[in-house]
Design goal:
flat; about 350 residues; 12 strands; alpha/beta
């Protein structure tokens, strides 16, 4: 068996899950979350079991309840509505998505027409387009690029962070063919973690008789891995949420990877189910050490709770109240949320 490395949780997902876990531990239920915190059924179910209610409209939240905004990024009007309605609001948007939102705002403010490559209906695309709806055009394919008009204003090219490099490259080339002077950011909008997981998959794909991709069907980066494995010519590609979905006839050299919102416990579950007779070989393409600190409101919450606990226990007044967030893995916090 070949095991891709990196795989599973990215820095943005780590940050978002830990933030919501802190919300669950700090407030009486229910805690509300706008959209799924990340696109993974097991993660969402685990939080629902702890009293988190996921909504698609801020109006569904009773006034005065704590609200978390998902990692995919929210439209400015959604953020404003949450702050007006919630007693405590934490925005767990991935910093890489925030970067794209900033690029949209700046380019639109300078009079650019933004061609945004993304998936229609995806939460990240919806939130990004809402930053400057009158200045942005969504495209998913080369054909859609060719159908765009010849804009009179300068063109800027931006992207949904979770696209596969292959999907992005074809459309980006088409945009540059159509608009040769199109502006692009100096650093790619594509998520480094998404790219790393795709590179690891491609490194092992030529050796595989089958590839198992762990993740949910509504996860864009998971589906990109599935599509990439199929495009690489792997004879059999299986996307599963967990081990129970695996068929009994998986054989030969099997590659295993996981989307950026799939917890490591699911990887361990798959390995146990497949029980490779010849062991597991890791296929590593890079080391990931990226870290995103908790959202500001979570850091403030940690300090408040730490200070209160220190005072109740009679600890020294100068004892640091801030916890070392790096010492806690999202997967461990998620496992701790399981109902007894």
């Amino acid at each position: 068996m070949l095991l891709a490395e990196p795989r599973g949780f990215c820095a943005g997902v780590e940050m978002a899950i830990k933030a919501l876990a802190w919300m669950v531990r700090s407030f009486d239920p229910p805690v509300y979350c706008y959209h799924e915190i990340v696109h993974n059924k097991i993660v969402v179910q685990r939080f629902e079991d702890q009293g988190v209610i996921f909504v698609d409209d801020i109006a569904e939240v009773p006034p005065g309840r704590p609200i978390m905004l998902s990692a995919h990024g929210s439209a400015p009007e959604v953020v404003a509505a949450a702050r007006a309605r919630g007693s405590y609001v934490v925005d767990s948007v991935c910093p890489l998505v925030t970067k794209v939102h900033h690029e949209v705002k700046v380019r639109a403010g300078k009079g650019f027409r933004i061609v945004y490559v993304g998936h229609e209906g995806h939460e990240e695309a919806i939130g990004t387009m809402a930053v400057a709806p009158r200045s942005i055009s969504l495209v998913e394919s080369v054909a859609e690029v060719e159908a765009l008009p010849q804009f009179t204003e300068p063109v800027a090219l931006l992207a949904q962070t979770t696209l596969s490099h292959r999907d992005w490259a074809d459309v980006a080339h088409a945009v540059h063919d159509r608009y040769p002077d199109a502006w692009m950011p100096g650093r790619s909008d594509l998520c480094f973690a998404t790219t790393n997981r795709q590179s690891a998959l491609m490194a092992m794909a030529p050796r595989c008789d089958a590839i198992v991709v762990i993740g949910s069907s509504n996860s864009s980066n998971t589906r990109a891995l599935e599509k990439l494995a199929t495009g690489a010519g792997c004879p059999r590609v299986l996307r599963v949420n967990r081990a129970a979905e695996l068929p009994d006839d998986v054989s030969g050299t099997v590659g295993v990877t996981a989307g950026a919102s799939a917890p490591e416990e699911l990887v361990e579950e798959i390995l146990a189910r497949l029980a490779p007779r010849h062991g597991v070989e890791q296929v590593r393409v890079t080391e990931e050490d990226e870290y995103f600190p908790p959202p500001r409101n979570i850091r403030e919450l940690q300090v408040a709770i730490g200070s209160a606990a220190a005072a109740l226990l009679g600890a020294p007044a100068d004892l640091p109240a801030m916890l070392d967030d790096r010492a806690y893995a999202a997967s461990d916090m998620l496992s701790a949320l399981q109902a007894p």
